[in-house]
Amino acid sequence: MSDGAAITMIDELDGDTLHEECGVFGILGHPEAATLTALGLHALQHRGQEAAGIVSFDGQQFRAEKHMGLVGDHYTNPATLAKLPGAMAIGHTRYSTTGEVALRNVQPLFAELEVGGIAVAHNGNFTNGLTMRRQLIAGGAICQSTSDTEVVLHLIARSRYTNSTDRFIDAIRQMEGGYSMLALTRTKLIAARDPIGIRPLVMGELDGKPIFCSETCALDIIGAKYIRDVENGEVIICEMQPDGSITIDERKSTNPQPERLCLFEYVYFARPDSVVGGRSVYVARKNMGMNLAKEAAVEADVVVPVPDGGTPAALGYAQQSGIPFEYGIIRNHYVGRTFIEPTQQIRAFGVKLKHSANRAMIAGKRVVLVDDSIVRGTTSIKIVQMIRDAGAKEVHIRVASPMIFYPDFYGIDTPDADKLLANQYSDVNAMAKHIGADSLAFLSIDGLYQAVGGEARNPKKPQFTDHYFTGDYPTRLLDKDAETAGSKRSVLAAGG
Amino acid sequence: MSDGAAITMIDELDGDTLHEECGVFGILGHPEAATLTALGLHALQHRGQEAAGIVSFDGQQFRAEKHMGLVGDHYTNPATLAKLPGAMAIGHTRYSTTGEVALRNVQPLFAELEVGGIAVAHNGNFTNGLTMRRQLIAGGAICQSTSDTEVVLHLIARSRYTNSTDRFIDAIRQMEGGYSMLALTRTKLIAARDPIGIRPLVMGELDGKPIFCSETCALDIIGAKYIRDVENGEVIICEMQPDGSITIDERKSTNPQPERLCLFEYVYFARPDSVVGGRSVYVARKNMGMNLAKEAAVEADVVVPVPDGGTPAALGYAQQSGIPFEYGIIRNHYVGRTFIEPTQQIRAFGVKLKHSANRAMIAGKRVVLVDDSIVRGTTSIKIVQMIRDAGAKEVHIRVASPMIFYPDFYGIDTPDADKLLANQYSDVNAMAKHIGADSLAFLSIDGLYQAVGGEARNPKKPQFTDHYFTGDYPTRLLDKDAETAGSKRSVLAAGG
Amino acid sequence: MSDGAAITMIDELDGDTLHEECGVFGILGHPEAATLTALGLHALQHRGQEAAGIVSFDGQQFRAEKHMGLVGDHYTNPATLAKLPGAMAIGHTRYSTTGEVALRNVQPLFAELEVGGIAVAHNGNFTNGLTMRRQLIAGGAICQSTSDTEVVLHLIARSRYTNSTDRFIDAIRQMEGGYSMLALTRTKLIAARDPIGIRPLVMGELDGKPIFCSETCALDIIGAKYIRDVENGEVIICEMQPDGSITIDERKSTNPQPERLCLFEYVYFARPDSVVGGRSVYVARKNMGMNLAKEAAVEADVVVPVPDGGTPAALGYAQQSGIPFEYGIIRNHYVGRTFIEPTQQIRAFGVKLKHSANRAMIAGKRVVLVDDSIVRGTTSIKIVQMIRDAGAKEVHIRVASPMIFYPDFYGIDTPDADKLLANQYSDVNAMAKHIGADSLAFLSIDGLYQAVGGEARNPKKPQFTDHYFTGDYPTRLLDKDAETAGSKRSVLAAGG
Amino acid sequence: MSDGAAITMIDELDGDTLHEECGVFGILGHPEAATLTALGLHALQHRGQEAAGIVSFDGQQFRAEKHMGLVGDHYTNPATLAKLPGAMAIGHTRYSTTGEVALRNVQPLFAELEVGGIAVAHNGNFTNGLTMRRQLIAGGAICQSTSDTEVVLHLIARSRYTNSTDRFIDAIRQMEGGYSMLALTRTKLIAARDPIGIRPLVMGELDGKPIFCSETCALDIIGAKYIRDVENGEVIICEMQPDGSITIDERKSTNPQPERLCLFEYVYFARPDSVVGGRSVYVARKNMGMNLAKEAAVEADVVVPVPDGGTPAALGYAQQSGIPFEYGIIRNHYVGRTFIEPTQQIRAFGVKLKHSANRAMIAGKRVVLVDDSIVRGTTSIKIVQMIRDAGAKEVHIRVASPMIFYPDFYGIDTPDADKLLANQYSDVNAMAKHIGADSLAFLSIDGLYQAVGGEARNPKKPQFTDHYFTGDYPTRLLDKDAETAGSKRSVLAAGG
């Protein structure tokens, strides 16, 4: 029974995508809190496939279940849910950015405080997590995990305030970065979003009971009603009263700043049926494709989406351009493992395990391939190869977002800057040649802003977080300035 | 170590689909025969997710690996493939029709004969399997599995011929039904298709080495070339000669009859990128949608596919009707397990685990839902409910195949006739009301024939197998006439 | 889910012991037949640790559970036993002699016959198993396992008799060798022992219901009463009558021959608390030690048993010689796995994982080490080394059985003849030197006969089976004469 | 991947024994530190079968492997040991007293301090653990485990000293109770024993490299040399110097007090081949049996040990009394799981799964049963029942230790006082009747003292820890006085 044992993951193609680290879900006052949390996390599975945890409180005791793997691998077991009684629960599904893969890093994390227990889960990343951790260790704190979330727990434990809400706010005021956070105490469910609202967090209700979750799709799966987004810099405290009623207290943790949601939520992370910041993600993506068709038209016979990320944009591109939309690439639903490649290598092997060319829609055709983004470009090369092998006359790549030049520090796992395609070639034609495409075009930053928010980028006061495209980081970067991210690793590597 | 132990399956919605039982793959003369077979089976995974087996021969010894679960769960392990040396292999991926779930039923099955070992794998079902089994047991044969394939092995073992090819042909001549079969001996790879070619089987080659597989998509994944379909009633014997060359001997097992491929391969089973009987499955499905739009037009704002089966037909419907195609239903890729439903029931629960309504494309809209087929209708009810809950103004269902009235006996797992929606209501309006749709229409049988083959059904000499729609069974049904299918079960239920 | 997957075994030291292959247990008419069978097999676990299987019949259906590993690993699970309903069951625990390790070889084996199903389990080995298998395959039979038991099933299936009892007797009359066999039909529990009774089999009863099992210890664990040994060449048929009563029919399968029980059952295999052939195994072993003390006295300070086999003999030796009996070697109860030896090798490493020297009883002492038998001698070398390292002044080995010169063909897994210590050295002094002992002595064959049966060996008509010591095989050896045992392996190696 | 998942344990009979919680092992400067630690823990397996952990340091990074189950279940895997590189390691095998069963409680525990990482493992229990934990939480510390060891880590982390040795000593000075403790820093292996030396700890060496372990048997298995016992109240700091040499610094953590080793180490816990406090455990146990024979003689035919604890004492009893020693009870080596008892109950069921009566040595005999101790007496009842069922004429129980009246707080898991047999009956005859024995006698406290140390108990200054017999606790009991042990439980119950 190892706690770092074999993990089943849904691999993305060659790691040539960006990873979001987490989804969160919490509910207060519902008799089947853990069951609903499991369903909510299942709907948020796309935000993290590495591990999932749930903590519940039954009036007497906090209970935790944490498991490596998909939500459906464990929380479909009635025995597992039976171990999570109570009307209050928070849950977390994760892809790791900081912190190695080990069960003790799986959230929610829990601490027994003098004022009672507290469990915390968050999506995002602190830009001063390492700095704070060092200060805490110097002050005699023991860090059991390598997760930034534990830093918050320590700050809560060491706060001079007596009330758990005050301690929580005291703690998050010391943290910088992008985060959406949920906390569970013996009577309260607390939700908080970072000062500029980089990561999303919404509030809903089911039978009058408050729910918080990363995306609206987690409300839909359980038939809950969307109320509003948690605002940037806001803390909402829902408390179960002795008479069974629930009070809701809305506060600000910081002085108001303009909200800047992460654009990549619209480009790639959020589920298309979610509504983020009041905007349909699906509509935003179709708009990206439409704007791309306006900006980068090409004569062609067929518009083919690169599944699944590029599909809405491809549909938008097709509708705008009038070129027929066709499934030129078929996705194999049974992915997840890396098969062994024969010695006699197969062209585009990695891609073929997951996708196949639909020859009838490709052969002899001029194909526009629409993808959501290009990170390293390694997958694009194989896809073009596969499309050409299927007989395409021309292959034109259209990317529904701008070129990526800069790393992220707010919860998105980006490769080293020099691995990014955009940093390897000076112009788009060289990139097209590298990939093997007849032409290549990216959506402009203004095209993206307009697709999402209706207006072009305001360079003085950008409406969204967009540093991966522009280098304009929305906060200072304390840890990064202090040292390299590599030293963030704990010296205990726990395999088991 | 149980041989009937826990199985991970990709559940279909409520079992409200038809199941195909098998995919087969075989290759002769290639140094990485087992690795290529594993890849081929992965591409055929949609034909059976219950178990997969591979038998190889290395010049000295036959080796078998059989595992419950997906191909990728086991055959991605180098240690497993290392146990399958040799340049000859056949593999099988299965969904069980006859035969309970137990490892000893997983194909390929093997027998040691006086003339040497032989392994057999097949896709399809024998209509006289039970009858033959009874005769064999009366003659002192011992049946270890409950699989029909074992009957063929016994007939081979007891044949009076001395040559393995002659024994094989002698055996299959005694069997009736629909099947595509592969056999592996110490020197030969043999492929055979039933007299009217109900189940598909194609021949390809890689580096000059012959391959047989259920669909062309298994050739594509390894970069192999399609040569031709194995003909109905044909037996092809590929033999490795002492000098390393391969001879190919093409024979007929029976007198020629007209070919009648199963229409459901086009409607639902085959992968859209496969070419079956020389016809693109994707194009056939789009044609079904186009014909459906002609036959059953409706005023609407949006055409929404029921994923994934209905997607090509929906695209065809949209292109023909001019109504925009939109993703009104989003599929959750992380399915596979049945979550626990809260006591306070969630509307359309089962469907929501796998699909969600994309409200932005549904609310206030007149929706045309396009599905590939309706079996029991239980899923349709939930999908309509989910679409209405998302605010649809009208919901019109269009089904890209005719009503299903009759069970199958050739390898498709159909529910009891009285469970079929078409047998429960006398007219389509009553069905629509039952499902909750504003209207409902099915593609006509001629519309389907034209979509697939270009011509209407020839009632005297139907071009395809279509009994589920018409009751016109293409062969006699010996077992069925003799008794009920229930008694087909062996009296040994092996749980472990 | 592999059927040849990882197996947990209680390894014996370096394989330097003989292995018995099987224990059997059967009961008729008891409502908890499978539960009692599991307990009986647990008591017989020392006869085979590789796998265990149970078949029950509930009046409607035969059910089988077969699992690699110990009885306690699987049959302690209520869910597993619940899958074995009915008042009739037979079970088997095995160590393989013939037949590779694979679940499909685990007994009981089952066949559906025209006259109804039959399950068979046996302990022992057929000396004409291979010869019969060849005849059967030539006659068109398909062998799915590599177990000799399957040969019996085929003979039953092909018998010209109509009654299952007659078919069973017809089948075993064709088999030669040493065996104790149980069969279960829809109404009968049949027990049979080979013509000279090499392998043991006893009959007992619980609440008036008949039980058969390999040793009396399996009766003791469930509080059942011992009735008598099944006689050599006897077949006992217990039949459940329609009125619920049980009839017992005792027959002879062959002409009476004198019984010759295997001496190794007394020397090593049987549990000391069992009564075999009417003689207490424990008393027999103590007698061996006493006779050894008479035959091979030595001046010493302490008698130390080599655990656990040598313990009763050591006690006998001590009581006879007057030298104190002491635990000079302590057994580690947590064995089972082979630990990794450090590069800097540890003396007597393999032995130390399982035993340790009790220095307080060894240092400065003249030690008599008493062991039950010596096979290859590799363990003896390490034990002497360990005892010397603990400070022994002298080490004298006394072995409570004669030297082993010849292989067995009746169910005991013996190493190749040239690996046996007795065949490597011409005299006992050379052996002592090889092992590192100050002296070495073996019990004489007459000393052994007297210990077990009270009388010296009758060379013309030996009272026991003793070929491993004498070369006097009690039956002809058809397979061995026909060819080497190596070719007995099937050409299908099923890893999964 | 749960961290609280299914655990395989070697159950003791009905829980009717006392449990020791831990064994520890550490080595400094040996290239195969982890491999040797695994072997040492295997030899200490009897001290804790629930879980085992090893932490190593390779000069760069600490690595941890922790697994539920036996040492041999995991640390025999080369891949697991490969994850533990470095020349320094400490390991721990545990049976839990305080702290629930969960992987995060498995030792060694680790903390990253400002002065570098430290790993700690201990055997024993703190009598002020809960009190200290409360103080720490009030001071803002976060406790992730429910293990007392974590308290020590926090005290080290918060110590005002800068040097790790000083911090360690500062921390253990604040703890009360019985413990043997090992710590590993980047350069040091530190060993410490509680002020009166309740729990054992010895020092050895292999190739000049220092080793510490709970018992000498862990030295024997790897061929290491015993140097001396760590003294009570002593701290030994072994440090790796930059030049590769090792310095050894011996200190006192407290003012000297007389040593009082726990008597139960001699009675039951330690392995018989170990030397504890300079005395052979085996010899001490034989002495107990001899003294018992003097104190409580009885006319009988045979002395039978209750395996395995009672065996050496039984041998002593037999040698002293002249009554023959015989194996009247045979132990089944394949225990570990609880089988299902038939509805029709089996007499002495629980005992029979593990032991069986050797009827040949029992029937018609007057039997002296010698056991090491009686806790609740539930097992004794069943054993007497089994012996009587086997035909014993008389059954006399002789217990080689005094009656147990009081619970332990130093690492032995004792049942509630009212469950102890000695507290349920006023005199030994009533107990004998309750158990079903013809007579019953316990060794006197002086008899025990003499057996172990040669002298009777000095009531003013007892030479050993013996409160379970006498009520004379060797330290104050802060936690117990403050409240009940029940409230020691954390409010987080982590199932996964």
TrEMBL record, chains A, B, C, D:
List residues traversing the bilayer: none
What reaction does this catalyse?
A: 5-phospho-beta-D-ribosylamine + L-glutamate + diphosphate = 5-phospho-alpha-D-ribose 1-diphosphate + L-glutamine + H2O
Catalytic activity, EC: 2.4.2.14
- Any one Pfam family match given in the protein's UniProt record, by short name: GATase_7
What GO molecular function terms would the record report? amidophosphoribosyltransferase activity
For whether the record's keyword set contains Disulfide bond, the answer is: no
Q: Where is the active site?
A: 22 (nucleophile)
HAMAP family from the xrefs?
Answer: PurF
What does it do?
A: Catalyzes the formation of phosphoribosylamine from phosphoribosylpyrophosphate (PRPP) and glutamine.
Protein name, as recorded: Amidophosphoribosyltransferase
Which organism was this protein described from? Rhizobium alvei
